[in-house]
Amino acid sequence: MFNPDLSSIVKVLERREGEGIILEVIQYEKLQGHYGGEAAAYRHVNKLHQVRAYLKGGELVTESGALQFMKGAVAMKTDNSLGSIAKGLLGNALTGESSVKPRYTGVGEIYLEPSYKHFFSIELNNEELIADKGTFYCCESRVEVGVYAQKNLSAAIAGGEGYFQTKLRGSGIAVLQSSVPSEQILVYKLNNEKLQVDGNYVIARKGNIEFTVEKSTKSIIGSSRSGEGLLHTYRGTGEVWLIPTLKFVG
After folding, report:
1. Per-residue CA distances from 70 to 78, 96, 104 (Å)
2. DSSP letters along 165-179, please?
3. 143-149 and 202-215 as β-strands: parallel, antiparallel, unpaired?
4. What is the pTM of this model?
5. Cβ atoms 144, 78 nearer than 8 A
C-alpha cells in the first residue's frame, strides 16, 4: 500500500541540528519500477540519495533549482532587487552557479532533488571554505554563500576552475555534493607544508592555503619529459580535500 513517511525504504545517513533547523542526508535502500535516464545508468551500482530538512523557525539556503517539494508553513523568498539580480548574473558567469540562492523559512519539511551523487554535511565554526564549482548544495542561513576570486594568475588560467570559486563563510551547517561518498574524500591537514596534485582532484580547501599551478620540474623540458607537466600546488596551513578515486568513478 501507499507509504506514509518513506521510513520503510530510506536510511538516514547523517543528521545535524542547527538553529531552528535539522538537516538529514537520506538513502533509498531499494527502488522498484521502470527507470530511464540517469537512474537506468546508475541504479545498479549506486543508491539514490536525498537531502531532507525540518524547519523549526530556522532558514534554509539552497542552490537554485534544488527544491523537489515542501510541506507545512514554509515560505520561499529570493532577493529580487536590482543589485541582487546583477550579483546573481555575475555569479552565474563567474562560477557557473547561481549566486541568488532561494531561502526557505517557517515550520515544515523540505525535500531537495535526489541524486545518484553523494551528499555529506559539514559544520563550519567561524571558518571559510573554498569549494569546487557544483559542490555546494544547501546550508543554514548562518553560513554565507559567496564568490572567491583566485589570487594567483596561474591558478586562474591553468587550474581548471577559472578565476572564481564558491566561498562558504561563517558558523553553521552546510551540505555538499560529491561524485563519491565522504569516506573516499582524503582530508590532508597541512602545517606550513606543500601538497602537489596532478589534476583536478581537489574539491575544497580551508584555512590559510595558497593555490597555484606550477611546473613539475624547474624547466618546461624537464616537465614534459617527466610526463606530469603542471601540478596543482597548495601551500600553507589548513586543510585540502581531495578525491584520489575521482577518475575511476562511473
Report:
1. 16, 26, 10
2. EEEEEEEEEEEEEES
3. unpaired
4. 0.83
5. no
